[in-house]
Design a protein that fits this description.
160 residues, 7 helices, elongated, XRE family transcriptional regulator
Length: 160
């Protein structure tokens, strides 16, 4: 059975302020409750290699960080436990986080592209040898203006 962050989060309400051990314990206990409705303590002990006291503390929401670490580093633990538990704590799934970051990077790239312009699409002067210098047609002309400012601009007027 797959437990989602929404199922864990809904038992604690919409706003879960801060990240602290008590909330991680509660979220882990809720994850265990949703994953194993019956025979929870024995299933937890068997699944993650915990003793009876550690399994009981996980089921009751009193697990220590050492027990949490055992669960996370166990071959049956890891991301399949961390993702739904931490997603409930942070109120954001890993998928939502990745999509958010991808969109932020796309917006940043779009802004940068608008700021810089399409540099490589500018026409090169064929007489200067940009396309036929043997180094590829994507190079800028060597003899073109190298300075920025009014003097470098092709339509710059000279002072009378």
């Amino acid at each position: 059975m797959t437990v989602t962050h929404m199922e864990i989060r809904d038992d604690f309400g919409e706003n879960l302020p801060g990240f602290e051990l008590a909330r991680a314990r509660d979220a882990l206990a809720k994850y265990v409750e949703l994953r194993w409705p019956w025979g929870r303590r024995k299933a937890v002990a068997r699944e993650w290699g915990l003793n009876d006291d550690e399994a009981r503390s996980v089921c009751s929401g009193r697990a220590s960080w050492a027990t949490f670490d055992k669960i996370v580093t166990h071959p049956h633990g890891g991301w399949q436990v961390l993702l739904p538990v931490f997603a409930a704590l942070l109120d954001q799934t890993a998928e939502q986080f990745i999509i958010e970051k991808r969109n932020a990077h796309a917006k940043r790239a779009e802004r940068l592209g608008a700021l810089v312009g399409d540099w490589w699409a500018l026409p090169a002067d064929p007489g200067v040898g940009a396309a036929d210098d043997g180094r590829g047609s994507d190079r800028r002309p060597r003899n073109g203006p190298h300075r920025l400012g009014k003097a470098a601009h092709p339509r710059a007027r000279s002072a009378p």
